[in-house]
Design brief:
homodimer; mainly alpha; DNA-binding
DNA sequence: GTCTATAGCGCGATAGAC
DNA sequence: GTCTATCGCGCTATAGAC
């Protein structure tokens, strides 16, 4: 037991800081965030934040890794299920993302924003591209479409379900309320699998 | 002639500052940018930046409006051409975006990042959703698919062509070089129109 | 118009009492 | 562990000479 039992008996203060950090970093990005705002929101003092996490950057990295795992880990079980067809996997992936992203609409723009701003700083440790490329899903795509790059389908599927959350500020006015946005997303749960099936049938 | 001829005889200094501002703001975002960096890159002094643009924020807004027009304006002529079919429009839109985004790969993440960070600050003046919703392209979509929301197709088409540029840091390692990325995008010039045609034929 | 110098403030981080 | 107070730096913006 190398890590003590910090995972089980989580320090309440540490968790309060983390929870506030998640909110503020997500909303304002790393550069736009002031540690004072995190301290205030968590109801503790600025000094305590540095006592627990040493620096703004170290605190950010904890949040960033969490968020990346959330964004890419969600579909991991679906990608590698040997007992489902290609079409079933697409349906599952789309629905898993729809569920998770409706609850966490800012997650994709947060992760992709920070990855683009700081290309190298967070490359270590977590490799989403391997998770995708080595998946059973990609293997099935190759079998069905041996002459095409499976990445092309992958990009399209992820783009169709994730992009609306990133481009929300643009479509917001065309859509109206938050509720209307959710209706659009919920419609896509059925539309995208139907579309992808059609894409997989083209010659 | 209300605007003088500034459009023609552009002040060299002003343009030098603007050009540097485009580079730095795009790379680091508004919050991550220091006006000192812009001054240094443009080869002028920090004071001169404020002399021409009054403040960091005002300079940013100039750049932001430019970039938004570039991102959403490219397809404007294609969207409203009364003499092309739905399929032809899709092909044109995809190719116009591929051309422009290969030359400006950071443009989408820049605009969407800043719009998401500052939802209200840049809403005034430019309304991409109207450009899209009121277009002849959407009218044609409605005719072909009267029972479906044309926005659903629009989101998918834009997502398929724009998303890879936003998610580049993720796929980068799976793809390899910059050249390989461009090959993927160039393949999509033919793939996406073919796929969208199939989508439009589904029942 | 362009520069140097600096005002004035807000930031991340720390010292040190409790 | 938690606080108050403060350091020291770097930022945007401006004053003022040329």
């Amino acid at each position: 037991m190398a890590k003590k039992d910090k995972d089980i008996i989580t320090s309440s203060t540490e968790e309060k800081i983390l929870e506030a950090a998640r909110v503020v970093f997500t909303k304002k990005g790393f550069a736009g965030t002031r540690t004072r705002d995190i301290a205030e929101l968590s109801g503790i003092n600025l000094a305590l934040l540095n006592y627990y996490f040493r620096s703004k950057e170290k605190l950010f990295k904890v949040v960033m890794i969490e968020k990346m795992q959330k964004l890419f880990g969600v579909i991991s079980p679906a990608l590698n299920d040997a007992n489902t067809t290609l079409e079933q996997k697409v349906t599952l992936i789309v629905n898993l993302y729809a569920d998770m992203l409706i609850k966490n609409p800012d997650l994709p723009i947060f992760v992709l924003r920070e990855l683009n701003l700081n290309s190298e700083a967070f490359g270590s440790g977590f490799h989403p591209h391997k998770m995708l490329s080595d998946s059973f899903f990609v293997k099935q795509l190759k079998e069905k479409r041996p002459d095409e790059n499976p990445l092309q389908f992958l990009i399209s599927i992820l783009g169709m379900i994730i992009f609306p959350f990133i481009a929300k500020p643009i479509f917001k006015k065309a859509i109206g309320s938050e509720k209307a946005f959710e209706i659009i997303i919920n419609e896509r749960r059925a539309l995208i699998p139907k579309w992808v099936s059609a894409m997989l049938r083209t010659k």
